[in-house]
Structures
1.
Amino acid sequence: MKKTLIFSAMIAISASSWSQTAVIKGKFHKLLPNGKETQEVFFSKPEDGEIEVILPMVKSRQDQIFRGEVKKEDLNTIRYVGVFDEQYAVYLKAGEELNVDAGDGQIVYSGTINKENQVFADWYKMIKPLRNYGYTKNGYTLPSDGYLRIIDSLKAPVEQFIKNINTGNTAFDKQAKHFLTYSYRYDVIIPTASGLNIGKKDEYPESLVKFYNDEKWTDANIWNLPMGYHYMLYFAFVKHIIYNSKQGMAADILIPEISNKELKAKFIVAQAERGANMNLVQYLERNEQYMQTNQQRDKMKVMLKRARMQEPGGDWIDFSYPDAAGKMHKLSDNLGKVVFIDVWATWCAPCLKEQPALEELEKSFAGKDVVFLSLSIDTDKAKWQKMVEEKKLSGLHLFTNNKGSVVSDYEVTEIPRFILFDKNGKTVSIDAPRPTDAKLKALIESTLKGEKSTTK
C-alpha cells in the first residue's frame, strides 16, 4: 500500500511539472556553409535587436529529431525556433506539445496547434513563394521578375491578413501584428541582400522603390524583434549600396535616416560593439552625440577609450595584476620606460615556442629603459607558478586568471599576443611582431630612440 501511495505521488508530481511546461520538437533542415547538415536547433527570444538562445536542442543521430522542454517563463508569449538567420515564430501554452517540420523557408506545424500557432501556420503558407527566394540554397538565382510579381501579389493579402488577426488573445494579437509586419518586410529585403539581381536602378519597379523610401525608422519597437538589427542593416545595404550604388558602409549611410532617437542610439551602439566599422574611433566620435541614456554614454566612452588605444599614439589603459608572491603591479608603474607585454599561457604551444627568443630579446636590452611584462591568462595559478619557477623565466610575470583589462580592454582573444608601448604610455603596436621576428627588435630600438612608428 505504501509503495502504491509513493508511486501515485510521483505521478502527481510529474503531471504537475508537465502542466507548467510545454514541449517543442520536430525536424529542421539547414545546411551549414561547409555543406554539412546542422546538428543543433535553437529555441530563442528577442534580445537587443537579435536573438538570445534560451534552449539549444541537439538533433538525435538516429532520426535527426530535436526536442526541448519549454519552461513556464517562455510560455504565453511569442518565441522563435530556428537556426541562425532562419527563425520561425511559435506560441506555446502549458501542457502543449508542438511539432514543427522546417527548413528552406518553410514550416509545417502539427501536434497541438493552438489558435495562435494557427496564425503563424497560415502566415508562412501564404508567403511561401516569397521565402523560396530568400531561404533556399539557390534562391538568389531564380528569375527576378518572378520575385517582383510575388511581392506585388502579396501586398494586399499581407495587409489584410495582419489587419484581420483576431484570436481573442489581445496581447498576442498586438505582438503578432507588429512582428509579422516587419517579418514580411525582412523577407522582401533578404533575396536582394543575398544576391538576387533586379537589374539597373532604372529597372526597379516603382512599388519596390516606394518600399525603400517609405521606411523612415520611426518605430523604436523594431529593436524588440528577433531580426531587428539585421533588418536595418540589410535594408540599408539593399537601398543604398545595391540600389543607389553609394560607396561606404551601409550602416553609416543609414544612421542619419533613423528618425526615432531611441532606435538610432541602439543601432549605433550595436554596430560599434560588433566592430563593423572602417574606422571605429571616427565612428564613435561622430555618433556619441546621439546617445540617449547614461548607460549608452558610458558604454560609448569605454569603447572609445579602447578604440583609441588600438591606434598608434593612443593612450594605454592601466591595469594591475599580482606576481607569484601576490604583490600587485600596475602598468603605469613603468611610465618613463618602453614596455613590451607578452600575453601567454602554460598550455599554449606557440607561446612556449616564443620563450627562448623572448629570453634572448630581453638580454639584448639589459640595462636599457625597456620593461618586459608577461601576463598569463592561465586560471590554474599553481601550474603557472610552477612553470615560471622551473623554467626560470625572466621578466616580470603576472597572473591575470583570464580576467580584467587584458581580457576586456585589450580584447585578447588569441595568444600569443605581443603589445608595445613607448615611454609616455602611448601605443606603438597593439599587435606587435613575435620575438622570433627580427622586426620586433628593430621596433623596440626605434621606440627607445623616440622614433614614431606606424606599426599596427
2.
Amino acid sequence: MTSVASTPRPTPTDVVPFAPFGATTGERAPVADLGAGRGPRWLDEWLDANLAQVVSWRRTLHANPELRREEFRTTATIVEVLRSLGLEPRVLPVGTGVICEVGRGPRCVALRADIDALAVPETTGASWASSVPGVSHACGHDVHTAILLGAAAALASAPGLPGRVRLLFQPAEEEPGGARDVIEAGGVEGVERIFGLHCDPKVPVGRVGIRVGPVTSACDMLELRVGACGSGSRNELDCDVVHALGVVATGLPAMLARRVDPRSGTVLAWGFMDAPETSDGTPREGVLRGTLRTGDPAVNDRLPALVQEIVGALLKPTGVRFALDHVRAVPVVDNDPESTAMVQQAITTALGPQAVVSTAQSTGGEDFGWYLEHVPGSYARLGTWPGEGPQGDLHQPGFHPDERALPVGVRTMVHAALAALTWPG
C-alpha cells in the first residue's frame, strides 16, 4: 500500500476495450457444497448446476493475476459474465472495477469483492497457478471475485428478490485507493448496508468468522525527510542527519507507547532508512519511512497531530530541517453491530449455527473501512484452511485456499443480502 487515492483515468463505461480471459484448463476435482440443501431452493438448484463454473472462474482469475490499476482483462471477464446473466455492468471511470445491480425495488444493499493481485511469486504448483512471473493472487482476491460472480448469478436466477443487490467489484485494494474510486463513482449511493468477505487461512473451511467493532487496523504511511544545516565542509558546524534519523527511529515508537493507550494496538514499524553519502563523507539529507497502525478509530483520529508534535520535539535539539508526510492510507474496519447480526443470521441460515465462529482483530489494513465511513456494514472472514496441515498466511507464495470455501462464500453473501433486505425495521 503506497498511496491513499487514485488518479482518475476517464474511460467509457459502456465499452470494455480489453478481451476477457479464456477458461483455464486443469484438473477438475469435485468441490463439495458444505451448505447443500439449506435453501432457498433457487440457490440450491443454481449451485447444484453451476458450482463447477464458480470453480472455473476462480481458477481462470487465479492463473491470470493483474496488479492494482492494471486489472483490465479481469474487469473485462467480470463484465462478460455479468452481461451473460442479462445484467448491465458499469466499469468505473478509472478504467478498472465494475458496479452492477440485480433485482428491483427501493431498498438496496451492497456486496463487495476486491479484484487485484499482489507482486508475490507463486509456489503452489497447482495446474492453474499464476502464469505471470512475480505476480499472484496471494491474498485470495480471485476467490472473492469468483464468489461475488456466483452470488450475482444465483441472485439473477431467483424468481424474485425483496430489493436490489449492488455488486461492487473493486480494483486496487492493495494500493489502496480502489474503495474511494467506487465511492466516487456512486457505488454506495442509496445503499443501506454493505458486506464483504475475506479469505482467512487460520479459520477452517466451512466456518465464517465474525466480530462486532474493529476487525482490522487503520494503516498510515509515514515519510520523514531531514536536511542538514551548514555547508557540509566543516563537520563540527553541521547538523548530523544520521543521528537525527536515529533519534526519531527509536524515540517516536517509545513516545507513542507512552502517549497512546496500549490497548489500542498502536504499532509503528520502520521499513526504510537512508542517508546518501556525499563526496566529503557527510550526508546532507536523509529519509525514514514506515507504517503506523492502530486498532482504535478514536486513536487514529489523534495520531497525525500527535506524531507531528513528537517528531518536532525530538528533532528540535538536533537542528535539522525536516518535513513529515503523514498519509492516511486506510481507516479501521469497524463492524456495525446490527449489520454483523445480519451476517450471523445469514451464516446460520446458510450453513448452520456451527459455522459461525468469532474472529480476532487483525493489525492488517483493509480499505473496506472507507465504505463503513459512508454506510453501515460488516466484514467477515471466510475459512480457507482444509483442517489439516500448516495453516499458512496471506501474502505468501504458497497461499493455497481450500476451494470448498467457494460455495460457502456464495451462500453467505447471498443470505447476507437477503437478511439485510428483509431485516425487521
3.
Amino acid sequence: MSNLFIQARRMLLLGAMLVQSLSVLAAAPAKIEQYDITAEKITEQVYVLSVAWSKTSFINSAIIVGDKGVLLITAQMSPVAPSLETKIKELTGKSVTHVFNMASDTFHFHANQYFKERGAELIAHKALKYTQAPTEILFDDNFSMSFGGEVLTARHTLAHNNAQTIVYLENSNVMLLGDAFRTNKLVYTGYHGVQGHLDGFDQAYDMANDKTLIVSGHKDLRLFSQREELKQAGETLSNFARLVGKKHKEGMSIADMTADQELLNALAIYPIYREKPELIKYNIIQLVELEFRPTYEIDSDDLQAYEGQYQASDGNLLEVGVKKGLLFVMQEGKFKFALNPLSPEKFELKGRTDSSHMLFHFSTDGKIIGISPKMPKDSYYEQRIQAEMHQKIK
C-alpha cells in the first residue's frame, strides 16, 4: 500500500471524525444562563419583576396577566429573556403575547426579537423606530389599551431619552418610569435638558396620586416610591443644575466642582454621593455639555429650512427634522441624535464630548443642498453614520 494512499485514508478518517464532532456539538443544546428574578404581586393581574444582573444591579419589569396571555412591560436584555419567560410561566401559566417598550434604553428592547419569535406583539413610542429595536405597533404622544382587566395608559415625555414614556396601570395604581427616575442618584436628563426632565416629573406627578406605587427602571434603594419623591427629585435636580451653572460661569473647573462641598450637599438625598463623591463628576459633565455649551442662535422658523431627506450616492438616507425646538438627524433602525448649532453650517451632536458633528452645505443662493457627517476616526459613531456627503432630495 503506497504512502500516498495511507495519507489519503488518514485524511478521510480525520474528516469523518471532524464531521461527527461538529454534529455532536450542533446537537448539544446551547447553555442558557440563569438569572434570579423576584416577583412582587400587586393584584391578581399585575406583578413587578426584578432581575438580578449582579449582586448590586436589579432591573425592573412588570407584567399584566390577561385571559389568554401576558403583557410584558420592558423586555430586558436577550440573555435574560429565557429566565424571564420561565418566571412568567411559573407565575401565570401563560406565555408573553405582548411586549411594551417604554424607552429607547437598550435594556428595554434588547429581547424584543426573542419574544417576537415566540408570537408576541411589540408596542412602543414611534421614536423607537430610530433604534435597532424590532418594532410593530407605534404610537405618538399618548396611548391607552385594556388588557386582562387592567388599563395601561402611556404618555410620551421629554425626560431622559427619545422614546421615554410614563406607563400608568390605572386599576392597580402602579406607575413605571424607567430610567427617567432612580431612587439612589440623578439620571441623565436627555436632549431636552433639565427643563425637559422636570416637565417629565411634573407629568408623572399629575398622573399619580398619594397611593400610587412608583417603580423606577432599577431597584436601587427600594422597589416602590411615592408621589412626593418625584417632587423632591425634581427640586434636587433643579437646584444642583443651578449651582453647576453658576460655578461654571464663574470659571470653576470640572475637577474643582467635583470636590465642591456645596454641590455634594445639594445631592444630600442620595447616599451614593456620600459614599462615592467622585461620581458627582459624571453629573457635572453631562450638565455642562447639555446646558452650558456655547451655541449659535438659530430661530426655530429658520431651523425648518434644514428639515428634509438627504441621500448618499449609494442610496443611504438620512432624515433631518425639528422637534420641540431641537434639530435632529436620524436613520430608521439605527440612530436619532439631537444637534447643537455652532454656526449655520456646523452642528455638533448634542451631549457629546468629542468632535462629532454634522456639516451642512449651502448653494450660492443660500439654500441647503447637503449634509456630511463628521465623526472621529475609529469612534463608535464612525461605524454607524456614513461619512459621505448626502444630497438633499426632499
4.
Amino acid sequence: MLKKKYKPGFSDLVNEAFNAGLNIKGMGEVPVNKLFVLGTFIMGFSNPGFWFMGLALEIVYLYFLSTNPRFQRYVESKQYANIQQSRNHKLQEIVSSLDTPLQARLSKLNSNLAEINKLMNWNLDESSGFLNQSKQETLNHLPTIFLKLLKTKQLIQESLARTKPEEINKELRKFEQQLKAPNISPALERSLQGNMEIQRKRLDNLANARENEMLVEMELQRIESQLALVREEIALDSSPEGLSSNIDRINTTLGETQDWLNTHSDFLRKLSGPPIDGYDEVETEEPLPPPRREAE
C-alpha cells in the first residue's frame, strides 16, 4: 500500500518561501527574508525608491524559490511530516481512550508484529529492496486498521451498556396494558402506539448493535489468528519465497479487512465519526503501543 502524496499548493510554497531562513551556528534559524523586508521598509522612509526595489527583489525571490523543484520537495516533505505528526497524535489519543482489555489486545498485536519484523529482518538482506519495502508498508498499516476495529467495538459495547432490554420490555408491557383500558380516547391511543413503536425500534437497534459487535469481534480475531499463523510459518520457512508468500498473505488480510470496513462504512462512520483529520491514507512509522500506566 503506497503512501498518498500530498502536493502543496502555490500559496503554501510562497508562504514557506517568505518564512524561509538560514540556520546559523550559535544563533539557530535566522529569518533572513523577513529581516530583508523589514530593512527595506525602514530604509524606504529615507528614500521611497528602496520600497520599489525591495518589492521587485522580493517578487523575484519568491517566484524563484517557490518554483524550484528541490524547494517544492522540501515543502512537500515538511507538510507530510506535519500531517503525519498530527494524525499520530490523534491515534495516540484513541489508544489512550481504549479500555484496558482492548489495550492489551493492541499491545499483543504490536508484539507479534515486532516479532514478525525481527524474523523477516534476519532473513532479508539490503539487496531485497522491493520485498523490504512491501514488508514495511504492510506491517505499518495493520495497527491502524486494528485500532479502528478496537475503538468501534468499545463504542458498541458502551452503547449496549446504556441500553437495558428489560427496561424497554417493561415499558412496552406498560403501554400495552394502558391500551387495554376501557373508554380510552383516540388521542391517548395514538400517543401510546407511538411510544410502543419507539420502544420496538430501540429493541431492533439493540439487536443490530449486538450483531455488529459480533462482526467486529470476528474481524479482530481473524487478524489476530492470521498474524499468529504468519509468525509460526516464518519460523518454519524463512526462505525469501516463504517470506514473500507471508507478506502476500498479510496484504490479503489487509485487503479483506479494508473491504469489510468499506462495506460497513455507514455504521462505522456513525459510531466513530469522520476519518482522523481526513488523512486515513497516511501510514504510521511504527505500530502504536498502548501508553504505559503509572504504578499505583
